[in-house]
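Can't paste images in this forum, so I'm doing it all in text. The chain is below; anyone willing to post the predicted structure tokens underneath?
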Amino acid sequence: MQNTQNAMEIDIYDFDKTIVPFDSGTLFVGYCLLHYPWCILWMPVVIAGFVLMLFKVITFTQFKRICFMFVPMIPKERAVRGFWNRHEKQVHEWFGERPRYSVVISASPDFLLGDIQRRLGFDKLICTRHNSKTGAIIGENCRGEEKVRRLFEEFDKSEIHIVDVYSDSLKFDKHIFALANGDCYHIVNGEKVKFRYTDKFKDD
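Text version of the structure:
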């Protein structure tokens, strides 16, 4: 059994549709198409990639690499700043009442979430790494089991005690829910629905 006496207590949060009521990566693409309309030139490549993904020629991660290759076409820092100027107010109020060291783990791009981390002041951000110049994903998409791997890449297991875990997705975030030693919170329409892991995932 893990000795938690000197371990730092942390809570884990998903980001998209958990802390905010939308998928930030998808909404950012729409924002850029609206404010930098020349990005439409890249859309046929995205559509082709989507078709290839549907037919399982490429993986979701490979498709996502294609999706953000428009980044060199925009003033990235200005676009990110403008995006969060518009959408920061949609952050759920309960996130401001964080009781412990807060770790946000998300599949969304680091270049997009870095700004909102600074604004909201949460402690640690772990998300999908992207090349700052090309927008392409570096390594794996931070989703599913990869979230757990990245968490323990950042923290030694013996040094942290995971208390509560928050996410909108029972399917994709089952792996981080399993880490909770306190409560799990399923985010439904912005509201926190508390449950115990063993009650929701009875076969584990």
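The radius of gyration is 18 Å. The chain has a mean pLDDT of 95.
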